[in-house]
Every structure is written in C-alpha cells, then in structure tokens.
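Customer escalation, tier 2.

The customer says the design service returned an amino acid string that "doesn't look like it belongs to this structure." They asked us to rerun it and document both sides in this ticket. The original structure tokens are below, unchanged.
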C-alpha cells in the first residue's frame, strides 16, 4: 500500500458555524461509503484483480482497506484516487488474529460473512468505544443458525470471534427489522452454504450488495421481496468499478440548500439508488424545491444531479415506519428541516436510530434543544415543532459524524450561529465537509 490514507480523526476540534444569508454553487460530494466498503470486500474475494476508482477516502473506509490488507490481500494505490485489489478468491482470505474495525459498523457486520469461508481460527473483530456499544447478535445469531462459529461478547456486543472451516447450511431468515448490513452479511455467508439462503425484510433496505454480487456473476434470486443465494458458489468476479457520490453526504447540502440555497445548490454525480433516496420525497412533502436530473448509471446504479433551492414556506410532515429504511441515515436531518417548518413533524418506527453511531433519537432532540428548537423524544422516533427562526447555541457531536455535520448546517441557517464540539468526527465519512460548506459561501 502506498500513498496517503486517512484513519485518525485528529485532535478535538470545535467548529463555530456562523449564520450566512445564502449558499450557492456546485459541489462534488465524497463518494459512497456503503459502496466503497462493499467494493473493497468483494474485490478481496474475487478471482481477479479489481480496480476501484474513487473509493471514499474516510476513516471508516480506511478501516475496511486495513481489514482487507489484514487478510493478506495485496492492495496498491490510495483511497480517494484509485485502488487496485488483488483478489484472493472466495476461500482465499488469510486473516490476522485480530482486526480493528475502528468506527465502521458496516465492516464489522459484513466481514464475518466472508471470514467464515476462510480457514481462519478465532479471528477477533474489535472496534472503538462507539462500535463496542453496537448490537452484533443480529449477525452472529443468523450465522450460527447456519452452522458458523461466530460469537459475540456478553450482551451481544463486540468484540466478535469468528472461525472459518465449517460447512454451512442454507436457510431462510426473516428479519424483524430491515437492515442492509444484516441482509448483506447473511447473503455473503450464503455464498459458502449448501443449498439456498434467503433473507426477507419488513421493507426492503439498500441493495448495493445484491447489485454487486449480480455484477460479479453470482445469481441473486428474488421472490416476493425476499432475496436468496444458491450455494456453494465457486467463483466471484467483481468487475472494475467507479464509486459514485454518496447520497447520505449529499443530504447535508440538500438540507443546507433547502434552508439557504439562492439561487441554488447543485450536487452532480450522486448515487440515486431508490432504496437510499427516501429523503427526497419527504423534502418535497415539506415544500422543498428539489430537482433530480438523471445521468448515466455509475457502478450499475442510478446516478444524477440534485438541484435544491431555498424555501421559506416549509410545512411539517409525518414520516411513517415504511419510509424509514430508505432514509435511515438522513432522519436527523428531517429534524433540522422540521425546526423551520410550520407545525409539528413526527418521525415514527425509527427505533433503529437508537443503535447507530450514537442514540440518534436522544442525540437529535438534545442537539435541536441546544439550538433553542422545540423537540421531544418518542420511544421510536421524535417530534419537532418548527418556528420561523432557529435561535442557535451549542452542541456536542457526541462521537457521531452525522451530528457534527448537522450542527454545522444548523449554524449557517440559525440566527446566532452554532458551536459544534467534537467536530473532527465528521472525518468518519466526510473529511472535507467544512471546506465544502465554505465553497458554497459558508463561514465556518
Ligand atoms: C449501511 C446500512 C445501514 C446504515 C449504515 C450503512 C450499509 O445500517 O445505517 O450507515 O452500508 O449497509 P443498518 O443495516 O444497520 O440499517
């Protein structure tokens, strides 16, 4: 591995986001985190050498690159540019005894699905304090049902201990809660299992793994919303790919543009997988002028340009449980829009937010109240009552990248500005966030 890589988040930084009259311009947002994790992992078990253009350069994806290298996969190049991964084949990973997943939940939940196909014995997967608090039984339990040796620590938490070398049996898993990470892990395990492995979800979650497996020559079956793999699969050939812009990163600028875009904020080259873009429908319902200009597919997925303009007449809305999976990471931003909307906005059926990088229900309510906004927790969501002005104040990112960025956007649209402690955590998914906001005219 040569060249620069991210990984450390640097010293504690407090950012003061100062109110601005308007934001305008065109931004190329960072490339997609979910697709980058999957591309690196599937390239590692490919029969070929895979070239990945523009993989996201962030702390989270650096963790996945490190994990791939820790499985004795040769990697050239650098994140943010081009990475060339010399795949070792489906059963060729040789993992080190311990792998550090840092803050990356997607890595910790997908990697066991691949490691069980190796001959590894007792590989320990651990992470930072935030990851150590996140539930892992949701992947360990289904894999054990299939016969795999995957164990959590007490309470279903990391570290995980994973061993390979066991023949798995295919079976059906009906997930009680939609989760692309759990679905992906089970499908990856299905590559090694005898017979068919099926996963159903209450509402479909993002399907990047299924798309990438199909592109790699693996048949992914689909019946009545459930997806399945017939194993064991012998070969996987991920084609070379370019990673598109990340809708979840674009979402911060979409909301900034809805509050301040004049004449407009333009975001080209963004992944528009319909299982990721639920925020667009909610924004439109709230009265936001947001336009989608479709472009050519990137990485076998829809992509295009988003254009958003300021709206001074936002209306409250209700976000229903069925809408949650397609906007799971964007729900806190709905809270911010709601702070400026007429009426009370409610988000329901989103209890999953409590087990993200932080408890995002508590965190969104605390952050908004810290800015003088009327917000309250619900057991499975939150309610926010809007006003013409967001007064401003201070908040702590709480080791959650998405709250560092939400605080910055809120400050720009506020009366007095917002001070965001622990802002450096934005680097988990979007290291140059403050710089990009400044390019649109923000003072941060
Ligand atoms: C992700 C799936 C979602 C999302 C996370 C990334 C993925 O998590 O919140 O940021 O890449 O598969 P869940 O699968 O836990 O819903």
């Amino acid at each position: 591995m040569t060249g620069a890589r991210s990984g450390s988040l640097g010293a504690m930084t407090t950012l003061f986001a100062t109110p601005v009259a308007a934001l305008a311009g065109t931004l190329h947002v960072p490339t997609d985190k979910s697709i980058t994790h999957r591309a690196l992992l599937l390239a590692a078990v490919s029969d070929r050498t895979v070239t990945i253009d523009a993989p996201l350069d962030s702390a989270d994806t650096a963790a996945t690159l490190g994990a791939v290298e820790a499985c004795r996969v040769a990697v050239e190049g650098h994140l943010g540019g081009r990475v060339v991964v010399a795949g070792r084949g489906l059963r060729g990973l040789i993992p080190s005894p311990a792998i550090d997943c840092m803050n990356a939940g997607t890595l910790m939940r997908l990697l066991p699905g691949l490691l069980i196909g190796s001959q590894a014995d007792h590989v320990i997967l651990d992470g930072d304090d935030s990851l150590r608090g996140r539930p892992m039984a949701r992947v360990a339990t289904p894999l054990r049902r299939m016969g795999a040796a995957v164990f959590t620590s007490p309470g279903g938490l990391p570290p995980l201990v994973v061993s390979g070398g066991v023949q798995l049996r295919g079976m059906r898993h009906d997930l009680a809660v939609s989760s692309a990470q759990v679905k992906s892990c089970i499908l990856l395990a299905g590559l090694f299992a005898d017979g068919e492995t099926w996963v159903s979800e209450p509402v479909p979650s993002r399907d990047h793994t299924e798309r990438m497996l199909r592109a790699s020559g693996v048949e992914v079956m689909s019946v009545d919303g459930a997806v399945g793999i017939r194993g064991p699969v012998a070969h996987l050939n991920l084609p070379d790919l370019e990673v598109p812009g990340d809708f979840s990163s674009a979402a911060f600028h979409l909301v900034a543009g809805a509050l301040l875009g004049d004449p407009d904020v333009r975001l080209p080259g963004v992944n528009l997988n319909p299982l990721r873009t639920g925020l667009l429908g909610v924004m439109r319902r709230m009265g936001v002028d947001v336009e989608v200009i479709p472009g050519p597919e990137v990485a076998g997925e829809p992509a295009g340009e988003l254009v958003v303009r300021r709206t001074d007449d936002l209306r409250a809305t209700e976000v229903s449980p069925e809408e949650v999976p397609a906007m799971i990471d964007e729900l806190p931003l709905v809270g911010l829009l709601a702070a400026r909307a007429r009426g009370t906005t409610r988000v329901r059926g989103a209890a999953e937010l409590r087990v993200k990088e932080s408890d995002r229900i508590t965190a969104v309510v605390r952050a908004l109240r810290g800015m003088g906004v009327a917000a309250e927790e619900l057991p499975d969501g939150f309610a926010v009552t809007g006003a013409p002005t967001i007064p401003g104040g201070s908040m702590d990112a709480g080791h959650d990248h998405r709250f560092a960025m939400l605080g910055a956007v809120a400050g720009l649209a506020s009366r007095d500005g917002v001070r965001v402690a622990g802002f450096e955590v934005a680097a988990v998914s979007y290291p140059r966030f403050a710089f990009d906001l400044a390019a649109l005219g923000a003072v941060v």
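Tier 2 assessment: The sequence is consistent with the input. Residues 34, 106, 179-181, 184, 206, 328-329, 352 surround shikimate-3-phosphate (CB under 6 Å). The chain has two domains: 4-31+244-439, 33-242. Sent an explanation to the customer and offered a walkthrough call.
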